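User: Design a sequence. Structure:
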């Protein structure tokens, strides 16, 4: 089962304890009406707990989707749950949200509004191209896929390499001259996870792993790469 998440930076200088106090008991409710359909939609943060200098919890968010039933579009509520962590790491605060990128982005904005009144205080984390390149070259035999962006060849937007021993190819050096590494898929030496990692800190683990293990992996192996 594939599990995905994304790491963000918290721009404000504050403490984990202060953030926990703001999130504790956080709950909001909206009313949805569409013809005869009426739903109360909840948004809440629950299951908060500390693990060292990290606050973990679950962001629960009710949304409405439409299904097609006997010629009609019928609104149907569903609950999206996203485990998350807020962590003090060196001199910065990082947030990890366990959901696919579009939902993680949306939840990051909602958390920003809950914590700081407005969006823009929780922003994308970045991994510098040279850092991702160095990370790959430190473990080259376990990298199986590389995508390059910012390619300077006219009419070419992205380049990719698939296979083993990618670093020892003429194409790898050629592609590094023409673009920057954007995405790699590799096997973690320490954890054995098969991981996809992008420069904007989207993390995908392709083997079976739990949410708590995912958060621990990201803290240990991805956080050190973030600028």
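Assistant: Done.
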């Amino acid at each position: 089962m594939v599990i995905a998440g994304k790491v963000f930076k918290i721009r404000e200088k504050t403490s984990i304890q202060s953030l926990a106090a703001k999130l504790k008991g956080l709950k909001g409710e909206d009313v949805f009406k569409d013809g005869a359909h009426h739903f109360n939609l909840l948004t809440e943060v629950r299951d908060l707990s500390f693990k060292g200098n990290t606050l973990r919890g679950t962001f629960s968010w009710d949304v409405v989707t439409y299904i097609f039933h006997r010629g009609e579009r019928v609104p149907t509520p569903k609950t999206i749950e996203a485990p998350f962590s807020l962590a003090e790491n060196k001199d910065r605060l990082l947030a990890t949200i366990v959901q696919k990128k579009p939902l993680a982005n949306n939840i990051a904005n909602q958390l920003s509004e809950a914590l700081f009144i407005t969006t823009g205080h929780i922003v994308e984390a970045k991994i510098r191209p040279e850092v991702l390149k160095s990370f790959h070259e430190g473990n080259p035999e376990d990298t199986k896929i590389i995508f390059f962006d910012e390619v300077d060849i006219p009419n070419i937007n992205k380049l990719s390499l698939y296979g083993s021993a990618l670093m020892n190819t003429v194409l790898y050096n050629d592609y590094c001259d023409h673009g920057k590494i954007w995405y790699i898929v590799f096997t973690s030496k320490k954890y054995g996870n098969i991981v996809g990692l992008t420069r904007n800190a989207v993390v995908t683990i392709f083997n079976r792993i739990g949410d708590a293990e995912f958060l621990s992996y990201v803290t240990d192996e991805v956080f050190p790469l973030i600028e």
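The chain has two domains: 3-124, 129-199. The helical segments are 16-23, 101-116, 129-137, 170-178, 211-222.
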